[in-house]
Write a structure and sequence with these properties.
Glutaredoxin, about 210 residues, globular, alpha+beta
Length: about 210
């Protein structure tokens, strides 16, 4: 079995190889599907995001079907986060603004503090950012479901305490790029503007790939 360290190294090599291609679309090149493959009845199955159901800032039910056939960027955060979340939100908002007129790209942010981040609080948060709810869904739900789905996105989340201290909630600052069939295709450090800038090349590549297949 491949070690985690080697796996992460291979991912970075793959992303670097893509950057060497430049920003022009190459139909012979596709972003890799990230994750371990499984074998079912003699067929190789790629990693895919499992079925999910959450509630967004408008109290609408959000599922895999909401994003089916669309490319989307996802992350994990919480409103009272005292550390990396403001940096991540700034960069996610940067992506939102850049792709605001791109109907094939959506956004999905999961709170890891569902105890406090109700749909009403998420609505207020989204309104302060000035984003459209149909474009960027901020979701809450069952805590176990949120923490389990994070594993599908290869994002680490952790609650180190039973108390109410926001510092007890820990999460990765990664952004993940998902294709229209639920495969993870790329990632970046959402706290690093340069990493996000490179990530935009991957988004453009996947959007062109997605449109070429229609």
């Amino acid at each position: 079995m491949i070690s985690r360290k080697l796996f992460v190294g291979l991912l970075h090599i793959g992303c670097f190889a893509f950057l060497l291609l430049g920003c022009n679309y190459n139909p012979k090149y596709k972003l890799p599907i990230i994750g371990q493959q499984t074998l079912e009845n003699g067929e190789v199955i790629d990693h895919v995001i499992r079925p999910f159901e959450f509630i967004d800032q408008d109290s609408n039910i959000i599922t895999n079907a909401t994003y089916r056939g669309k490319v989307y960027v996802t992350d994990f955060f919480f409103i009272s986060c005292p550390s990396i979340c403001p940096l991540m939100t700034k960069q996610m908002l940067r992506l939102y603004t850049h792709y605001e007129q791109e109907p094939q790209l959506l956004f999905l942010s999961h709170t890891i503090d569902p105890r406090h981040d109700s749909p009403i609080r998420l609505k207020h948060y989204a309104d302060k950012l000035g984003v459209t709810s149909s474009k960027w869904h901020f979701v809450t739900g069952n805590k176990d479901s949120i923490y389990n789905i994070a594993k599908d996105y290869f994002i680490a989340v952790q609650d180190d305490s039973k108390g109410t201290d926001p510092a007890s909630l820990i999460h990765s600052g990664k952004f993940m790029l998902i294709d229209g069939t639920g495969h993870v295709r790329s990632f970046c450090d959402g706290t690093d503007p340069k990493s996000v800038e490179k990530f935009m090349f991957d988004i453009d590549q996947l959007l062109k790939e997605h449109k070429s297949e229609k």
